[in-house]
Amino acid sequence: MSLKQQIDVDIKSAMLEKRKDDLKALRAIKSMILLAETEKGNTEGVSEDAEMKLLIKAVKQRRDSAQIYKEQNREDLYAIEMAEVEVIEKYLPKQLSEEEVKAELQKIIAQVGATGPQDMGKVMGAATKALAGKADGKTISTLVKQLLTA
């Protein structure tokens, strides 16, 4: 079952169970997928990789908004954004812990043959592909810097 079909099924169940917060997040995901499908030049639909990128983008947007709301002491809006993050994350692969990411990065550094900070671009290219959807880009970048400068 594709992500779009799964979202449709989940929207129906959320409507029947009257879960308004879940419904809002699910509709937002569906909207993003539909927009991607109708983009200029898109003839085949949305690939699984593109769907993953859309979900990651949606989570990042909501986390950024939640952070702003938290700084402005708007706990009500913060709670809404974080509830949406939880719903969207159900469709993403399990996120790796910092230790797991570090272990993966050490393997990638060895494969690429990186020796110092000047090789960060090579490592980041391989790492973002290998860890797509499993770790945040900011976390990857920070850990790569630490590992290459150590």
From TrEMBL:
Pfam families: YqeY. GO terms for molecular function: carbon-nitrogen ligase activity, with glutamine as amido-N-donor; transferase activity. Coiled coil: none annotated. InterPro entries: Asn/Gln_tRNA_amidoTrase-B-like, GatB_Yqey_C_2, YqeY/Aim41, YqeY/Aim41_N. This is Glutamyl-tRNA amidotransferase.
